[in-house]
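Quarterly update, task 2.4: adenosine-5'-triphosphate-bound model.
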Amino acid sequence: MWTPIAEEAARATRVLHPESLQLPRPRHRRVITVANQKGGVGKTTSTVNLAAALALHGLRVLVIDLDPQGNASTALGVEHRSGTPSVYEVLIGELSLADAAAVSSQSDKLYCVPATIDLAGAEIELVSMVARESRLKEALSSEALDEIQPDYVFIDCPPSLGLLTVNAMVAAKEVLIPIQCEYYALEGLGQLLRNIELVQAHLNPTLSVSTILLTMYDGRTKLADQVTSEVRGHFGDTVLRTVIPRSVKVSEAPGYGQTVLAYDPGSRGAMSYLDAAREIAEYGAEKGTE
Ligand code: ATP
Ligand code: MG
């Protein structure tokens, strides 16, 4: 997409000098679950980069890594070896959220509750627990968040619709669905939306899909444009105007324990995540969800 040079330069300045742009605080604390049971669509990449973009521009952000793979913890430079205080101990009621949260190496306003491999067994362990669907919601009470005071909480889900994802949907008001711009992108989306409706009907009536983010857009393919217009046709304004391009820098960053905003701030990937974060922040400041 062609944009005027002046606009490009202004964007670069915002990325390279984060202090030059302060994003507005939301009217209410926003708890956003990033979900799609399809694997590899950009859930984790979007969670960590949006979180970092908001934090680098003045907001307080907490990321909860709810995937035993621990990819979000890795990208945020947070320890997650087995035995590290993590979201697992929070779910089984052994630790408070604040005690499990670590400050990310990416920003002192960015916190992460890491996931360790211990979480892999939680899906089964939770089955027999009291209030098994609302363990995370309980852990996210406003008293529990007093210490961290986040403006935004992002919950990075595993690629399944099991109990961990259900916990994330019960704990949040909003769902952000990343959709990869490729052929099979829309497959499985119906199932995801039905599950969200089930959670709305039985467990969390306030839940809604507030945000859809198109990821890994490859401008060289016609297909990417077809997927983009199909998704926009279906979901209208819920889809962010910003589309995240496929970019090698985005995929390299986690290997250095970094978000792309730190790894290569001037790259298209970094700028587009900042643009997407700005849209999210502006929505939160204007409309909110309460
Ligand atoms: P999972 O379902 O396994 O949790 P996910 O939905 O969290 O996956 P990611 O881990 O964010 O997906 O991304 C999948 C892969 O695609 C990763 O290797 C990531 O680095 C890469 N990737 C994500 N976004 C981009 C992008 N914009 N450009 C290039 N590569 C990307
Ligand atoms: Mg992931």
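Highlight for this quarter: The beta strands are 30-34, 61-65, 102-103, 110-113, 152-156, 174-180, 208-215.
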